[in-house]
Amino acid sequence: MPSSPQRALRIAFLGTADFAVPLLRALAAAPDQIVGVFAPPDRPAGRGRRPRAPAVKVAARELGLSLHQPPRVSRGEGLEQLRHLTPDLLVVAAFGEILTEEALSVAKLGAVNLHASLLPRYRGAAPIQRALMAGERLTGVTLQWMAVEMDAGDILLQRQVEIGEEEDFGSLHDRLAALGAAGGVEGVALIRQGAAPRLPQDGSQATYAPPIRREQLVIDWSRPAGDLALLVRALSPLPGARTTRDGEILKILSARGGKKTAAQRGMPGEIIEFTSDGFWVTGGEGALLVRRLQPAGRNVMSAADYLKGYRLEKGERLGV
C-alpha cells in the first residue's frame, strides 16, 4: 500500500554571505516552501562606501522569494516578522547573528544551521580560513540542530572532503558551499520524513575558528615559509595576505614554501632569487616563492608580469 504524501515544510531561511546562496537556491527548487528569507540590511562597502546588498538578498530577489531585512531577527520587528510567517523550520547559513532561544523556538520543528567544518572542529566565524591556516588535509560541512551555544548543537549530518595540496580559500569555499547545499536539502528531507538524527557533539574535541583580525592579514616574514604559504592560501583571493613595498600595500595571492641553501638565505623579507614563476622571499625558516600578487590600486597579476612592470632588485626587503 503506498504511503501517504508528506506535507511540504514551511521554511524560513536566514543567511547573509555567498556561502549561503547555493543552499537557498537548492531549497527553492526542493519540495518544501520557503515562506520568507531574512538577510541583514544593506551596508556601506568599498571605497565609495555605497550601500551593498548581501548576497542572500540578491539571490532571494532573483528567485522571487519574500525578503525581510530587519536590524535583528532575535528581537523587535524582526522577531515579529519571523513569528508572523509561522514556519515549521528555520534554516540558517552564514547569517552572522547569534539567535536567541526565543527566536530559535519560533519554528515548531526547530532550527538547523549549515556550518563549513566537521564539528566540533572549528566552531566559530572563520572555519574555512582557520582550517587552511592550520594545514588541515580534511574538512567538510555539518548540518546541526541549533542551540543557544554557538555551533554546539546536535549533528544532523556531515559530509567530508579532502583539501587540495595548494587549494585556497576561494576554491574550498565554493566546493563546501555546493556540498552544503546538497547536504542541506538531504537533511531537510530527513526532517520532513521524521527521520532526522540528533547526534550529540563531543565538546572535549572542540576547536575554535575566531574571526580573522586585520593585523592577522599582514605577513610576518620572520615566520617559517611553510606557515606563510598556508596564510596566503587561507586569505586568497579575499581579503588577501599582505606585505608592504616602498610604503605601499602588496597583496600576495599565490605562493608556495620551499627550502633554500645557507648561501641563498637572506634577512626575513629579503628577495633572494628570480625565476620564471616569480621570485623567492626569505622567511624565518626557508623561503616563499611568490607567484601571483596585487599591487595597491591595480588588478591581480602574475609575479612574472609584476616583474616586467615594476623594478624589483635582489636584496630588497618587503615589509620594512
Walk me through the topology.
Layout: E1 10-15, H1 21-28, E2 33-38, E3 43-45, E4 50-52, H2 55-62, E5 67-68, H3 76-84, E6 89-93, H4 101-104, E7 111-115, H5 127-133, E8 138-145, E9 155-162, H6 169-192, H7 225-234, E10 241-245, E11 248-258, E12 271-274, E13 279-282, E14 287-295, E15 301-302, H8 303-309
Parallel strand pairs: 1-2, 1-6, 2-5, 6-7
Antiparallel strand pairs: 3-4, 7-8, 8-9, 10-11, 11-14, 12-13, 13-14, 14-15
Helix pairs in contact: 1-6, 5-7
- What's the total helix number? 8
Largest sheet: 7 strands, mixed
The CATH architecture category of the largest domain equals 3-Layer(aba) Sandwich
Beta content: 25-35%
Please state the overall shape, judged from the principal axes of the Cα atoms: elongated
What does this structure look like?
The chain folds into two domains: 196 residues, Formyl transferase, N-terminal domain (Rossmann fold, 3-Layer(aba) Sandwich); 96 residues, Formyl transferase, C-terminal domain (Methionyl-tRNA Fmet Formyltransferase, Chain A, domain 2, Roll). Strand 12 and strand 13 form a beta hairpin. It contains eight helices and 15 strands. The radius of gyration is 23 Å and the shape is elongated. It has 320 residues and is α/β, with parallel strands linked by helices. Helices cover 24% and strands 25% of the residues. The N terminus is likely disordered.
Summed up:
24% of the residues lie in helices and 25% in strands. It is of the alpha/beta class and 320 residues long.
